[in-house]
Amino acid sequence: MATVELAFSALPVHVRTARLIVTAVARRSGVEEELLDEVRLAVGEACSRAVEAHRLHCPAEPVRLELHDDDGRFEVVVNDAASNGKPVDPLPAAPPRGGGAGGGDDPDSLGLAVISGLVDDVEIAPTPDGTQIRMGWPVAAHSSGSN
């Protein structure tokens, strides 16, 4: 399949649409049915995080997604353009147990930790414009493509 690109304005209502589109493309690409909930949740979290960053720093800029199914895997890349000069922790640790002052209070870190916990194959990296979250899932070897 060729690359599918999706851009949407930074409104929370569009996150659901992005989840539905990504899930449909994942299913068509051959991602196993039992992984589709993981895809839906991870993409929803990444898009919600990007929408919130855009709403704070660049509300007129769209959130951008790229979907690929090359080399036996389905990949989703979520790009935000909300660089605020703050470096992004590439793979944040899970929030500390028991809460407590000073730990796990940053919603951005919590969202990235949730994504890292959901997806085995994930890369979170700063870009010149913001943050890129690249997530991947295996594609079934013999997908029928007729669901």
What does this structure look like?
The chain has 147 residues and is of the alpha+beta class. The chain has a single domain (4-96, 104-138), classed as Histidine kinase-like ATPase, C-terminal domain (Heat Shock Protein 90, 2-Layer Sandwich), CATH 3.30.565.10. 35% of the residues lie in helices and 22% in strands. It has three helices and five strands, in the order E-H-H-E-E-H-E-E.
Task: Provide key terms for this protein.
alpha+beta; Heat Shock Protein 90; single chain; 147 residues
Give a concise summary.
This protein is α+β, with helices and mostly antiparallel strands.
Question: First CA to last CA: what distance?
Answer: 16 Å
The total domain count is: 1
Poorly predicted regions: 87-104
- What class do helices, strands and sheet pairing give? alpha+beta
Q: Bin the strand percentage.
A: 15-25%
Biggest sheet strand line-up: 1-2-3-5-4
The description of the largest β-sheet is: 5 strands, antiparallel
Q: Averaged pLDDT, please? A: 82
Number of helices: 3
Overall CATH architecture:
2-Layer Sandwich
**What is the chain-wise order of helices and strands?**
EHHEEHEE
The value of Rg in angstroms is 15 Å
How many β-strand runs? 5
What do we call the CATH homologous superfamily? Histidine kinase-like ATPase, C-terminal domain
Work out the helicity level. Answer: 25-40%
Q: State the CATH topology.
A: Heat Shock Protein 90
- The CATH class turns out to be Alpha Beta
Gross morphology:
globular
